[in-house]
Every structure is written in C-alpha cells, then in structure tokens.
Amino acid sequence: MEWRLIWERFREHKAGLWGLWAVLAIALIAIFAPAIGAALGLDPYAQDILLRYAPPGNGHPLGTDEAGRDFLIRLIYGAQVSVGVAVLSTVASMIVGVIIGAIAGYYGGLWDAFLMRFTDALLSLPLLPVLILLAAMDFAKLPGLGLFFADGDASLTKMVLIFVLFSWMTVARLVRGQILQLKEMEFVTAARSLGMRDARIILRHVLPSVLPAVIVAVSLAVGQTILFESALSFLGLGIQPPLASWGNMLNNGLETLSAAPMLVFLPGFCILVVVVAFNFIGDGLQHALDPKSVKR
C-alpha cells in the first residue's frame, strides 16, 4: 500500500489528525527542552526553598513547586521522561513481540506450542500488581545487574525494562495469527519453491503484510504505557526525583492540592492530552490501513 494513499486516508480522520499534531508538538517541546530552558534562563533542578509554591511571575511563568523549582521547565522535562519512556519501551516490546510471533506463526509445531503457552502465561498475570511488585524491587542488588542500575538514571532503565518484559505479548499473538494465514498463501509457497531462506521470506514477504496491524497496536499501546508509568511514579515506585516525570509531579503536588491545585492539574492534564492523542492516532491509522475504508 502506498504511503501517500495511507496519508490521504489518515487525513480524513479528523481526530487522528488532531492527535498527530498534538503528539508532534509535545515531542518537539520535549526534544528542545534544554534550548527552551536556556532561552528562559530556567533550570529544572535549581532549588530555592525561599520560593516554595510561589505564584506565577518573577521569572517563573507557572510558579514553583515544593522545592522552589520552576514548574514550567519541570513540566517540559517531564514530557521528555514520560513520553520518552513510553515510546522507547513500546517500540522495544514491539520488536520482541514481532520476533516471537513470527517464529511461532511461521514454524508452528513445538516452537508455536512453547512460545504461545509462555505468552498465555504472562497474559494471565494481573499486570498492574506485577508492575508494582517489580518496580518496588531494587534491581541494583540483583546479581549481574548492579552495573546497569547503579547510576542516577537507574529508575529510567528499570521502567523501560519492566515495560518491555510485560508489553510484547499482545503484539506476539497478533503477529502469530496474521502469519498463520499468510504462510499458506501462494506468494509464500512460490518463495519457498524458489529456494528462499525462511528468514528472507519472513522479512521481505510476510512481515510487510503484518506491519499495518502492528503499527495500530503499538500506537494504542503507547498511551497505555504512559498511564502505567504515571501510576507507578505517582505511587513513588517509578521515576525517582530529581528526574521529573508527570507521575511523580502529581505525587509531589498532591500534598498541597488545596493550596496549589495547578501543581496537580497541569501534569494530569498533560497525561490526559497525550494519552487521548495517541488513542486518536491509533483510530486514525486503523481507518487509514483498513482496505474496507476506501471510498469508491
């Protein structure tokens, strides 16, 4: 399917188009967060106890938080962490899910039985309690993992690892189901008869047909991952200060909800906007990639 045709059909979905522009705007703000901070003369980590909970003004457009740090630049850096962790872990889990689903669907037999039973076992686990349990663990004390979780960004690494471990199963089942149908079609049989290797058949002939469904699933999964990261950070188990994420900003502002409600409202509003935007993008992609939606 031509990308130009996909784009034209995606543009017909107004909510999806709005979601795309919203995500692009937030992504640009997050990418250029250091430049924005330098231009405004703001440091997300600079504390001033004498300016705790200061109202907007005096060089602080949105006021300050519980440690006297500028709230606007913290909100911008929080977008880097919350959205960045969600996108990175979702893309990584997509790669894992595609590999496992492709092996299970194409080869079948014992490979399919083993991989799908393992996938079903992970899917049967209650996801949020498992994430809370793993997030509460100190990975730096585990043998062989101490070097990866000893620096100041250990909470970032841990969040990405946890989400990758428990986010690939849906993609794997989706890919496996698609490949079970595709591997019996004539073009795959013809490729086998020409002596092509299995890896080449999967990469060049099978996966391109599966990719549209995977893209839709991944776009919807990003919003869910943002919610999980925010929930864990809100509970104090996710991204740890001084790093800013929208979830731990919600946690920090909850103690002063009545005195400074904006410290809770703004991170919560950002989470809402981004999650809804990614869901709209997923709906738009589903519309654009569905052959039944073509106007005749």
Can I get a quick summary?
It is built from twelve helices and no strands.
Map the helices and strands.
Layout: H1 3-11, H2 14-31, H3 33-40, H4 71-107, H5 109-123, H6 127-136, H7 154-165, H8 169-182, H9 186-193, H10 198-234, H11 246-254, H12 262-289
Helix pairs in contact: 1-12, 2-4, 2-12, 3-4, 4-5, 4-7, 4-8, 4-10, 4-12, 5-8, 8-10, 9-10, 10-11, 10-12, 11-12
Describe this structure in words.
The protein has 296 residues and is mainly α. The protein has one domain: MetI-like (MetI-like fold), CATH 1.10.3720. The chain contains twelve helices and no strands. Helix 10 (198-234) packs antiparallel against helix 12. The radius of gyration is 22 Å and the shape is globular.
Mean pLDDT: 85
**CATH fold description:** MetI-like fold
Query: Rounded to an integer, what's the Rg over CA atoms?
Result: 22 Å
| Fourth-level CATH superfamily | MetI-like
Please work out how many helical segments DSSP would assign: 12
The shape is: globular
Largest sheet: none
What count of domains describes the coordinates? 1
SS elements, strand count:
0
**Which strand-content bin applies to the residues?**
under 5%
Q: H/E series, N to C? A: HHHHHHHHHHHH
Name the descriptors.
single chain; 296 residues; mainly alpha; MetI-like fold
